[in-house]
Design goal:
Elements lengths: L1 H12 L33 E7 L4 H9 L9 E5 L12 H11 L4 E4 L11 H10 L7 E3 L5 E5 L8 E5 L7 E7 L1 E3 L3 E3 L1 H6 L8 H6 L12 H19 L3 E7 L22 E5 L2 H14 L2 H13 L4 H8 L6 E6 L5 E3 L1 H4 L10
Helix pairs in contact: 2-3, 7-10
Amino acid sequence: MRKMIFAAIAGMFFINHLAMAQVNNGNPTAGTDGNKYVPYDERTGNESVVYFTRNLSPEGLIKAYEQVNGKICGYVGVKLHTGEQNGPNIIPSEWVKALMEKDLNGASIIETNTYYEGDRYTTELHRKTLEVNGWTFCPVDIIDEQGTTTLPVIGGKWFKKMAVGNHLTNYDSMVALTHFKGHTMGGFGGSNKNIGIGCADGRIGKAWIHTVPGSDNQWSIAEEEFMERMTESTKATIDYFGEHVTYVNVMRNMSVSCDCEGLAAEPVVTPNVGILSSTDILAIDQACVDIIYAMTADEHQAMVERIETRHGLRQLSYMKELGMGNNRYVLIDLDNGGRRITAKEAAKGLKPFVKK
């Protein structure tokens, strides 16, 4: 029934002209302070649960996921950034294989084609890249391969709807399995970026997020406005799945560059941390950012600079404004009997990154 209702709404809203995607409500303006970090004790509201393990391995990934998979059922899509060819920092395919064989038998990895010309720009190129990167152990559904559909953006100021790959609505549940890292435009790439950009189709939805209509600059939308547009795209998808979506963030090989930059990514200088999981998208991305800020100055200098110069913290404040989750959380240490810890404790004693 949920699929039928959303499909009906999407059908009514479907468009094929970029300008029509925008909300005509008197020229919305972007928020501010996307470069200002808000400490935990200055936040208000309820707390969500976020699980944490330092065990960066297939076993750690499985343990983190199994804390938050209670509502994952039916036909499952695993939203994963599969990366450009030979990308050095993506989540290892053998980790994902182990997770899917144990807990997600019958699920598919889901992806979309890119907005930029590269190894994943067309479906044909994308499938070659999937083979190069080892994503051959399960079905991979390029969800915009056969076109797009739209999902409503409830409460958005930039969009009334978002164009996503039309296969997305074939799924009953979604697992956002995210490599947390920096991002050239978003400042950081967590679950919000993985879904907001990663489920928007490669020609329409991504253009709505990135480009001012008629602009010669493909990347003409930036800073707070970009964060808000990306977040509204995410909201369309997670509203569709409702309680049947969950989030796992892997804080490993955290370049300031996105995995879309492949071999051209900036060298990793931020220490590896661990794996987090939650059923709250804001809480998990906020916890990852908090752990970055809790590192020593030398450890987090590059990442904090990337986040703040791009005004990426607006992702977090806008998710809260849209009611997408809580920016306060209980961080549960899975390595030490499930006790509550702080982001500072999670960031304690990290080892300098060593390329393997």
